Amino acid sequence: MLVAIVGSGSIAKRYKSILEKSFESYPVLISDYLISNGTDLVLRRNQVANSIYPAGHFDLLIIASENKKHLSDYLHFNHIAKKILFEKPLFYRNLSKEEIEKLMKREADISISSPLRFHESFIELTKSLKTVGEISNIESRCQSWLPDWRPGRNFREGFWNDSIQGGILREIVHELDYLLSIFGQLSPVYAYRSFSEFLSLNVESSIDILLKEKKNNLVNVHLDFSSAVARRYFRIDGSEGSVKWDVLKGELSLISTQGKDVTRTFYNDLDRDLTFKRQLEFVFGNNNWPIPATSLKEGLVALQLIDDLYLLANGENKS
Hints:
Largest sheet: 8 strands, mixed
CATH class of the largest domain: Alpha Beta
CATH topology of the largest domain: Dihydrodipicolinate Reductase, domain 2
Shape: globular
Radius of gyration: 20 Å
């Protein structure tokens, strides 16, 4: 497989490592910051933009650059690859009609990174939702501690702390992605942002959200990177039982009113590289995973939802 990766951060390096170990593919790195170590092929953006590669030369182009550069990197480099995988979130803003039209020309070739969809426990979760009966509660929670994200690096120095392209919703968009995958269209009802005095960021450190799904059930969402104790789970309760998906433990718990409680642990889901590998296999067309990677249209829907939630939160937080 011939692969090119745009970017120089930790996600770009993770893709590079997985491609080398699991696919025996040694990607070309496109970055204005990296310097070749003698074995890696590193090219500057202008070198690639000046068409040193013919159209369709690479099997896959992975765009893992800063969020604000995603669109320009796509427009400059998409011609060199048969398929394109965007790291999340798709873009940092909604697009114009003209920009969307340019993207839609290659809709079938584009995927957005969504590794939670490649957890075995998530597949089993989607199969078990009907067991709860009439829904009474839906909850999604993702909590983490931002200083732990990049050990050894100033946690305030990163695009996640950029008010234009960062913030909790864009950084943890995977929660919105799997909720959209489960429920389809979601309508924003409420959003409130909070700012950590301790972390002292340029962006919100947490957000509380209410969404309404198509059957008018409310979905409670809490996202933050200001909690020292990490939690990441989805829970749905109903008249006949409950289902809880604990992402950090790789556990799926089915709680029944009939006393048939079952908890399964999916140890493979705890291997982050393996879930990325499954996603790459799907994008390459090498596996038939039951739930596909996020499509371009789904990514645009998530982008619109993020914008709507920020507008709603800004309205709530005028004081």
